[in-house]
Fold this protein.
Amino acid sequence: MSIGLIVDHPLTDTYFFSSGLIYLPKRVSINLEEEDGGIAPTNPFESYDLNYLQAPLSLKLFNNEIAPDISLFFQVGLILEFKIFEQALNEDYEFISKFNFFDTAAIIGTGIEYRLGINTMFFSGISLQKGLINIINQTNPEYPLVIRNQIVSIDIGMKF
């Protein structure tokens, strides 16, 4: 679950630039089993808690009302992510020793907005965030890993 503030700035009547600041906790878990001829890790399972601040930079495209006070929107853009916390949940780690401070993801989504009053709207949608870069900074050379986060989210909120 993430929480944050989003600002939609109108560019035209139906195009909006969307940005904000969102707190997002993530968990990365790794389970490596011995492969034929490979080196068996001492502890094949590792888990890490990561917390990020996200700054989305996206374009929201609204259609005309599909019903009274209801509009459909599509969203596409980029999300900049800054790591604010990292913790290994195991005492001994073998695979990853450090994660990158910065991550970025592409975002695509769709949803609806329902006008409740003059300046109040309820919105709901679904979006996909696909990581673009490897979040691992330092890894064990015996176990080369590449991790790109992928998040499917249900978005619910109020606009004032």
Observations:
- Residues 99 and 136 are 4 Å apart (CA to CA).
